[in-house]
Amino acid sequence: FLSSLHRRPMEIGSKKPVGRFRQVVEVPSLKRRDPRFDGLSGKLHTDLFEKSYAFLKDYQADEMRGLREQIKKERDEDKKDKLQKQLSRMVDRQATEAAQQRKRDIKREHKRKEKELVAKGKNPFFLKRSDQKKLELIEKFQHFKDNPKALSRAMEKRRKRNAAKEKTKILGVKRRRTDE
């Protein structure tokens, strides 16, 4: 049982020095807003955003072309490495954007089909995440049909990743047993 004193305010001694500068008049400070989290800025429409800034992809392609030319001309190995890293970052970013775009297209296509079915009187069906991933995998391998070399590279990468996961699982179990 707790006494009634445990909820009282904390006692502060009178000997504590007072701050030298006190704010006598409240000055309204400028509130900074982050548009990502602020409702006043509205919602993000990814399709509209992509259409509005589609010209940036052309700029990026030109920049990548210029980087490739610079890499060919460059004699200094350090600068060449830096340029190569920059180019690989840009290529990776482009690949992830393309993958995200494919995911969005798959979702959009499913939503469109579902709208048609609902209009016909069917009950709406929402995809689970696992089903979405399966559809994405199917789409990915449809994309690889045109390029068998890319398919073999992707499969090799997948094998390596799965082997590494298995290895860490096994090692993790061994580590836990030795710790106990």
For the largest beta-sheet, the strand count, sense and barrel status come to: none
**Helix content range of the residues, please?**
55-70%
Number of β-strand runs = 0
> β content, as a range?
under 5%
Number of helices: 5
Enumerate the spans where pLDDT stays under 50 for 5 or more consecutive residues.
none
What is the element string, with H for helices and E for strands?
Answer: HHHHH
Distance between the termini: 39 Å
The radius of gyration is: 29 Å
Shape: extended
* Structural class determined from secondary elements: mainly alpha
Rounded mean pLDDT score: 86
Question: Please, could you describe this protein's structure?
Answer:
This protein has 180 residues and is mainly α. The protein has five helices and no strands. The chain is extended. The chain starts with 45 loop residues before the first helix and ends with a helix.
Topology diagram in text:
Blueprint: H1 46-52, H2 55-73, H3 77-119, H4 129-144, H5 148-179
Summarize the structure.
The protein is mainly alpha-helical. It has helices at residues 46-52, 55-73, 77-119, 129-144, 148-179.
Descriptors:
180 residues, mainly alpha, extended
